[in-house]
Amino acid sequence: MCPDTPTPEPAPAATGAPDPESGREVLTEDDIARALRRIAHEIVERNKGAADVVLLGIPSRGVELARRLAELVSQIEQREVRAGSLDVTMYRDDLRAQPTRAPAQTQIPAPGVDGRVVVLVDDVLYSGRTVRAALDALADYGRPRAVRLAVLVDRGHRELPVRADHVGKNLPTAHSERVRVRLSGFDRTTDSVTISGGAR
Ligand SMILES: O=P(O)(O)OC[C@H]1O[C@H](OP(=O)(O)OP(=O)(O)O)[C@H](O)[C@@H]1O
Ligand SMILES: O=c1cc[nH]c(=O)[nH]1
């Protein structure tokens, strides 16, 4: 090497390298907040208010999303709109095929679901099997006037005739990919949606 040749910089430390666990971010905290605000407005518009609306989140992260949506709808309508949770574990059609899961909590806000508009809320819609199980679970608590579905992400690949009424983001994905939703309060990190895996 000629004496004037600058010493090569050391190879950069491996910072910023994609972490295969965390995946590629497709929705930021702001995107999620905007999507939830839009869905809240859609719910109010669709129901001409929110007098009869009950939001039920499907564990796990659907519960946190339902809580946030109820807060937003309450702000828009200047009246309290309540959120609860609906566990679907024992109603799943893949109960035996999956590792054992501990049932989560079902909490139906008074005065129940009879005659009301129930908005089921989940983070990801994929095969549609969780939603099918939720419809079965809900039937044990009464007969809503209507049941609607709000999801933060619809990633496609339905296996059942299920369609969401309110979608934060339609996300075309490969079967082999995994969509992960992280929510502050639940995951103790900032809100994000990431995609990981898939064919290289
Ligand atoms: O449309 P599907 O194919 O049923 O998939 C969507 C469901 O999968 C995820 O739940 P998961 O079972 O991973 O549990 P989690 O909510 O505790 O993460 C997600 O939260 C939805 O509830
Ligand atoms: O990618 C997926 C599939 C099902 N459920 C999720 O949360 N993510």
Automatic annotation (TrEMBL):
GO biological process: regulation of DNA-templated transcription
One annotated GO molecular function: uracil phosphoribosyltransferase activity
Compositional bias of kind Pro residues: 1-11
UniProt domain Phosphoribosyltransferase: residue ranges: 26-166
Catalytic activity annotation: UMP + diphosphate = 5-phospho-alpha-D-ribose 1-diphosphate + uracil
A Pfam family annotated for this UniProt entry: Pribosyltran
The family this protein is said to belong to: Belongs to the purine/pyrimidine phosphoribosyltransferase family. PyrR subfamily.
Protein's job: Also displays a weak uracil phosphoribosyltransferase activity which is not physiologically significant. Regulates the transcription of the pyrimidine nucleotide (pyr) operon in response to exogenous pyrimidines.
Identification of the protein by name: Bifunctional protein PyrR
Organism from which the protein derives: Janibacter alkaliphilus
